[in-house]
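Morning!

This is the sequence you dropped in the shared folder:
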Amino acid sequence: MNLSGWSRKQIGALGERAAAEYLRRNGFSVLDTNVARKTGELDLVAIKRTTLHVVEVKSVACDEFPAPDITESTLFNPTENLHPAKLRKVVRTGQWYIAEKHWEGEWQVDGIVVWLRRRDGIARVRYLPQLV
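The structure's back. Tokens below.
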């Protein structure tokens, strides 16, 4: 599928689907997606073993995938959007979710960055555990 002409919202939704699939393939069970509360939105909520994972997903369309070490090339680096203010918002919304679900176990905030190649929609996913 060619992603040329796709909106940011469409790219974001495709990235979230790729992130959810990545989690499933790596032993997580995805419990919720796009949980909206007055404090913000949680992209994905998943569980692995006994830990609840609140996952913020950042996606970007690119012509080519970046070099494996993205710290050397920020040209296609969606991690720049995982800044402290955004993470504080995710934590507050995660606390709301935890209270609402009466979760009493461990939980953490993770990130997933997704690069989507425009010409074919192939995704490259990078999981970033425990951002906070």
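Headline: The chain has a mean pLDDT of 89.

More detail when I'm at my desk.
O.
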